[in-house]
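Researcher: Next entry in the queue.
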Amino acid sequence: MEKPRSFIFFFLLLSFRITISAGHAGQELHKQPHKAVKLFVFGDSYADTGNRNKTDSPSWNEPYGITFPGKPSGRFSDGRVLTDYVASSLGVKSPLPYEQRQHATTSQLRYGMNFAYGGSGVFNTIFPVPNISTQINFFQNILLEEMLYSKSDINSSIALVSLAGNDYITFLTQIGGETVGFEELSRSVINQLMKNLKQISDLGLQRIMVIAIEPLGCLPRITAISSYKSCNKTVNTFAKFHNVLLRKSVDNLNRKSGRFEFVILDLYRAFMSAIKRSQRPGILKPCCVGVNNEYLCGSVDENGEKKYLVCSNPELSIFWDEVHPSQNGWHSIYLSL
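Model: Structure for this entry, 337 residues:
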């Protein structure tokens, strides 16, 4: 079944006159067409490019952003994140974060808008940020009340939905790492996510990319218990379970719509491929770590003293902090996609 799915994905992209390149996102992968395809993004920290509040998010603290753009920009990485690579493959700049729209120029709005918030989920998570249902309400508001985009704009645009990892991380955190009830949660997450995808479609977006979640058991937050030597197979099994349900449910949505409106970006396989390709020892260890297991990347004490350490070669790392890929990691994952 993989060959037909791959063909459908590239047919979808080619129908938009999109050129996909293996080049780095720091380069222009495609010259801007006369009328840009717009990208509308919903999701979490893998997609957030600056929506989180500066006072409560480490993404606005050093050393985040040291690779790109050279200072913190609200991205949960040392540089670019998934949204940047998807936008670049579409031949457009990364869409404007929703929280910055009030000061946006017409030129900035032409690429779409990003509603993703780091820490968000399908349901409410341990982080006080808008879940996807609220993000969709924001989208509906800019269409119906702020009227920033026309029907034609929306019908010819693409959506990226990057969600669910935080729902499971919240679950694992609240129950102390036990996995009892994980499958039941997965079914609830998928059922709600399908409703959300249908909402996005009903608002006019007819080409929607949704991620299959990453191998959660390979995230440094989980692999720390093994001194970053190996992925947790049990946690990865549940991530696979989610992705199987996702694929079946997305196939069902496409059958009902009568067209291939929804496409899955398989982050699980892409992550695993990126990890396996790297021959470096300790590849599961994050580049930026808090000291003494008491602090997180970007933390400072009451005197402003740094409470984190950064590796000497972030350009070779896969993971930036305990849950997020580095720019190099995202580049490798993007190539695997």
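Model: Strands lie at 39-43, 96-97, 112-114, 158-162, 208-212, 262-266, 288-290, 308-310.
Researcher: Noted, moving on.
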